[in-house]
Amino acid sequence: LSSTSLYLSLLRFISAELTRGYFLEHNEAKYTERRERVYTCMRIPKELEKLMFFGIFLCLDAFLYVFTLLPLRVFLAMFRFITLPCYGLRDRRLLQPAQVCDMLKGVILVICYFMMHYVDYSMMYHLIRGQSVIKLYIIYNMLEVADRLISSFGQDILDALYWTATEPKERKRAHIGVIPHFFMAVFYVFLHAILIMVQATTLNVAFNSHNKSLLTIMMSNNFVEIKGSVFKKFEKNNLFQMSNSDIKERFTNYVLLLIVCLRNMEQFSWNPDHFWVLFPDVCMVVASEIAVDIVKHAFITKFNDITADVYSEYRASLAFDLVSSRQKNAYTDYSDSVSRRMGFIPLPLAVLLIRVVTSSIKVQGVLAYVCVVLFYCGLISLKVLNSIVLLGKSCQYVKEAKMEEKLFNPVVTATPGKPAGKQQGTFKSSQDENGSTSVTNQPVHQKENMPSLLVTSNSDQFLTTPDGEEKDISQDSSELKHRSAKKDLLEIDRFTICGNRID
């Protein structure tokens, strides 16, 4: 009887396993959520690449500015300084703050360019090529870490120099002087340029290795980045910082690949056949970088329940920085805004590229100089066209994100020791009579006898208030509205360099 009942029980169990049913609609919310996660992962590549595409052109705009408009602005500042006695001094300032910053950038570029002539690229190349593969892999990783650390401190050095040189003189001196800050800035730009040169040289050695083992190991290093970031908890603000860092890293890699191609083409007497030898390796490096970014962001958004729409918000935030920097009351240059937001500092990279181009391409004869002038005019045309298109697209993104009122309704924050309510009567709107804000005029310098005002747009209030907290912007404020979660990502300080920790 026991064996028969066991047999019948076994048959009933097998029958139940073959015929039992279940109803997914009983847990509709769970399965709908899982399906949306799949759709989100499928949308990530498109949304991420749209953000990357926009961010790379923002970096390109800031990078081209160093070669095109900055020399012209330096020339205009020098012309004003030379012809100033002919017109007399209308105020205490010899130059406007923006002109002083342009002069400092130009002088730093020239000094660092001549200092780079004392660095032998060929000796550095053969010194690195003589090292073992494992040692070069370690060196390249160390260089990446050092680049991020130096970039995070470098913009602080440059900002300190600009503010020290343009700070109102009637204030009590609380700094070590303009000259020490200037030498610190020169040392930083020179050191960072050498660091990037070593990176480019290591990449060049990897390209020229016979078995391509070093290049393969360096590309696999990108996939190690997935392990270090995917399994960590990310908020929208942290993901925004990572996206900015990835934009900066990808643009820097493009410039490094350009330097590698220039050096290799010079060694083969600009033979076009050699370019097609390098082209597959270049495509392989770019493709691996794109694949790693897509996989990394796809799983970060999956594990942290972040939708793909967040990348549209990130793009709108970057567009807001561009549009706000074009206003009449803007308090920073756009290239500096990109440096603070993404951690991309164009000065060291520009110094290295100028050094490589001038050593690789020899200019001899009248025709060659004519070609250089035409190339410079082409760069200016590219910069202007890129800026116009970016400005138009940025206005579109800001409008779609419904952030226009943050541009046209600036607020006044209180100066130290004075309540904000007493100063609002002295502020005049910077809008034109037709209600539109100018994006081309220079900031108007206020008279010395007027009370100092710190004029900021609502974007600063919008970008600097920490998550989950509501702080009074003015002492006279009587109403506080709770912000939606969609705006939390823009509450990052626009002067926070990418890579800083956000709790």
From TrEMBL:
In this chain, composition skew of type Polar residues spans 423-444, 454-464
Which locations, inside or outside the cell, does it occupy? Membrane
Q: Where is the composition biased (Basic and acidic residues)?
A: 471-485
Q: Map out region (Disordered) in residue numbers.
A: 413-485
User: GO CC annotations?
Assistant: ciliary basal body; endoplasmic reticulum membrane
| Topology of this chain in the membrane | Multi-pass membrane protein
Q: Is ATP-binding there in the keyword field?
A: no
Q: Which InterPro entries match?
A: Tatp1
Q: Which Pfam families match?
A: DUF747 (PF05346)
> Which terms are listed as keywords in the entry?
Chondrogenesis, Membrane, Osteogenesis, Transmembrane, Transmembrane helix
Gene Ontology annotations of biological process type = cartilage development; ossification; positive regulation of cilium assembly
Question: What parts of the sequence cross the membrane?
Answer: 52-79, 100-119, 182-207, 344-361, 367-392
Q: Which PANTHER family match?
A: TRANSMEMBRANE ANTERIOR POSTERIOR TRANSFORMATION PROTEIN 1 HOMOLOG (PTHR13317:SF4)
Q: Which protein family is it in?
A: Belongs to the TAPT1 family.
Q: What is this protein called?
A: Transmembrane anterior posterior transformation 1
Q: Which organism is it from?
A: Serinus canaria
Q: What is the lineage of its organism?
A: Eukaryota, Metazoa, Chordata, Craniata, Vertebrata
